[in-house]
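Good morning,

Both structures are done.
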Amino acid sequence: MVFGTAVAILISVFPAGERGKALGINAASIYLGLSLGPFVGGFLTQHFGWRSIFLATIPVGLIVITLIFLTLKEEWAEARGERFDLSGSIIYSLTLLAIMYGLSLLPALSSLWLILTGILGIFAFIRWEIKAINPILGINLFRNNRAFSFSNLAAFINYCATFAVVFLLSLYLQYIKGLSPQKTGLILVFQPVVMTIFSPFAGRLSDRIEPRIVASIGMALTALGLFLLTSLNEKTNLEFIIACLILLGFGLAFFASPNTNAVMSSVGKKFYGVASGTLGTMRLTGQMLSMGIAMLLFAIYIGKVQITPEYHQLFMKSVKAAFIIFASLCSGGIFASLARGKVR
């Protein structure tokens, strides 16, 4: 509910010339949370127990709710009076559930049936939405809006190519390099810190020049970072890994907020909520597919075993294969990003 509405609210209250800046600050806030989360969570767990993580959310949530009621005075609903597409929502939800749960079960045989069911559900959903009077997701947004379609495709590819990177490097640093979880976390935090610092700048830049240009540069930098990680081996030094994480941080910072700016600027105010929700769906399904690819490669190269020293060589082969796939996906994503055309 938060991710489906936050971007829509930001776009609604900021003028077109300041959207990128607002979205950049929003992205920086998200990445700052991702950076601080492990450290704050570890501190709370060590000193107050793991339940304190959930309890700490309560006062923070109450503060945010209070600020919302004090500062957001207006409320709007551009589609007020339209009938809610309940049938389309159910088909859509079950379809995504089947695909995402299926990806989480890879490489089990049951996962293939769930993914196939989800794919068939997509066709059923599209067919229903074309006929619906007030569709939950207007198919014409994809058919008649090139910028919207390719911006969402670029987001899906980007998340698919990058989400499992931290997971793979975390295992690599602990199993191959023998680092502790704490030291591993300190190394991996370089990426979100860079993203936090440069996201507002990238967002502001997308207000001045076409978002597709900024986002495409970000996608290219990300592809370069992933390509460099394909050379990872047992002797790779930590400085090289940190440099790759910094490069990935730059790439993701220059892609995320400008791409979001392109998505939201390509639709009218009535469709802000739909566009924000669609972008969130691209992000989550891309992340699930990214992990699905990693798990499938582990199953192919290693099998269902614990990663002990005797399996380290096979583990490295699976990691290398993953980075080759991710770098290839991101390289293709550059063309999807450029193909969206102008939004201004």
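Second structure follows.
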Amino acid sequence: MWQEKDKALVREFKFADFKSALGFVNKVGELAEAANHHPDIQLGWGKVVITLTTHSEGGVTDKDRQLAEKIDGLWQA
């Protein structure tokens, strides 16, 4: 579930291993490129933390919410 923290949407995703987490990050990267809206991504063994914010607007916007929904779609697929 996404949480609002410090003017951003943040969510942690858990995986069985690094390879699975990396594959997810690559798919998120494709979505971000298509949307021309790029999250901050932290990748570690078995986990990915994604932070969405619109820096030019100083916080969360519809762009962030839309990308969060698309990322959730990847997660649920």
